[in-house]
């Protein structure tokens, strides 16, 4: 039988093992605690996200009430001087705030005008809009091809991508579809987006809410400065009818206003709107864009589309 005579060494080994065990247990405890804290944080973020989504859902009827109240007020026109267009909306909520702002989609160039077999005037107007915005005219033609009934004449730029996509042609549901157009960069999209919409083909342009670039585009021969004069005229007194617009615009431009969308496609009242809703809850934030249709006959407002914003 062999016995260790150095009992001090035995005690040192036992002590070292005990210390190592304590260190290991401490590390394990810290790991478990860290995971627990992380799970709690993630769970709080999930619950916060769910709560924000519910607040955003509640924002839709609030916006609808604003638009319905505008209709009930009996105004015969919609213009960018009305309360719904000039005021932001803010509602205090538990631990935060819900805010929103409304814009008129009919004050924008309707891209679905291009998805027609007789889209010549609309195509010319869209090319003018591209020039006014300082974008490459080739991009404008690519957008026109993208919306061409039956699809682009040359689909190769879509099929030859690293991730091939289809280009079905025809009308689109949202302007996000433009991101699939060959040559469309984020910078170009951001420049174009505030001036275009994707609405039913027969939807007219509201000349009381259209931007200067859009007015310059739909009035052949009108420069941007001419359109800005129209905006000054409109600020003093919104156009009462399509005929009033044609008459006053003709006087300012010193010629008859026709073409682009023809005068019968000009409107002074709108039924399609968009709203951006923002909710801030503690240190979290979430945004959503919704598209709304307001019946011109009964004033009922319905949500037609929604999209979460980054």
Give a description of the structure.
The chain is an alpha/beta fold. 44% of the residues lie in helices and 17% in strands. The chain contains nine helices and nine strands. The protein has helices at residues 7-72, 83-86, 120-132, 137-146, 156-159, 186-192, 212-218, 224-236, 242-253, and strands at residues 89-93, 96-104, 109-110, 196-197, 205-206, 266-267, 272-281, 284-294, 301-309. The chain has a five-stranded antiparallel β-sheet with strand order 1-2-7-8-9. Strand 7 and strand 8 (284-294) form a beta hairpin. It is extended, with a radius of gyration of 30 Å. The relative contact order is 0.15.
What does this entry show, briefly?
The protein has 310 residues and is of the alpha/beta class. It has helices at residues 7-72, 83-86, 120-132, 137-146, 156-159, 186-192, 212-218, 224-236, 242-253; strands at 89-93, 96-104, 109-110, 196-197, 205-206, 266-267, 272-281, 284-294, 301-309. The strands form 3 sheets. It has a 5-stranded antiparallel beta sheet. It has a two-stranded parallel ribbon with strand order 3-4. A two-stranded parallel sheet has the order 5-6.
What structural keywords apply?
310 residues; five-stranded antiparallel sheet; two-stranded parallel ribbon; 9 strands
Quick one: overall form? extended
* Radius of gyration, taken over Cα atoms and rounded to an integer in Å: 30 Å
Judged by helices, strands and strand pairing, the structural class is alpha/beta
**Number of H/I helices:** 9
In total, how many beta strands? 9
Mean pLDDT: 86
Q: Please summarize the sheet with the most strands.
A: 5 strands, antiparallel
Strand order within the widest sheet? 1-2-7-8-9
Strand content: 15-25%
Q: Report helical residue fraction.
A: 40-55%
Query: How do the helices and strands follow one another from N- to C-terminus?
Result: HHEEEHHHHEEHHHEEEE
Termini separation = 76 Å
Low-confidence stretches: none
């Amino acid at each position: 039988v062999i016995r260790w005579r150095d009992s001090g060494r035995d005690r040192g080994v036992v002590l070292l093992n005990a210390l190592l065990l304590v260190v290991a247990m401490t590390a394990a405890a810290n790991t478990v605690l860290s995971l627990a804290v992380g799970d709690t944080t993630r769970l709080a973020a999930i619950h916060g996200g769910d709560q924000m989504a519910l607040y955003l859902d509640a924002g839709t009827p609030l916006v609808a009430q604003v638009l319905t109240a505008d209709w009930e007020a009996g105004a015969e026109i919609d213009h960018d001087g009305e309360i719904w267009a000039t005021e932001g909306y803010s509602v205090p909520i538990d631990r935060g705030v819900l805010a929103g702002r409304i814009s008129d989609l009919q004050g924008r160039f309707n891209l679905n005008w291009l998805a027609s077999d007789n889209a010549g005037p609309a195509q010319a107007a869209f090319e003018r809009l591209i020039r006014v915005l300082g974008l490459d005219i080739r991009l404008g033609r690519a957008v026109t091809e993208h919306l061409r009934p039956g699809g682009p004449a040359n689909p190769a730029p879509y099929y030859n991508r690293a991730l091939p996509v289809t280009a079905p042609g025809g009308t689109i549901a949202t302007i996000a579809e433009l991101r699939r157009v060959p040559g469309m960069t984020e910078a170009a999209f951001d420049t174009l987006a505030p001036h275009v919409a994707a609405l039913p083909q027969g939807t007219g342009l509201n000349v009381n809410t259209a931007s200067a670039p859009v007015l310059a585009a739909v009035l052949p021969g009108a420069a941007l400065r001419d359109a800005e004069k129209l905006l000054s005229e409109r600020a003093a007194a919104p156009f009462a009818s399509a005929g009033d617009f044609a008459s006053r615009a003709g006087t300012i431009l010193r010629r008859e206003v026709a073409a682009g969308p023809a005068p019968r496609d000009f409107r002074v009242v709108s039924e399609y709107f968009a709203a951006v809703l923002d909710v801030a809850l503690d240190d979290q934030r979430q945004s959503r864009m919704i598209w709304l249709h307001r019946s011109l006959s009964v004033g009922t407002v319905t949500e037609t589309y929604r999209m979460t914003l980054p």
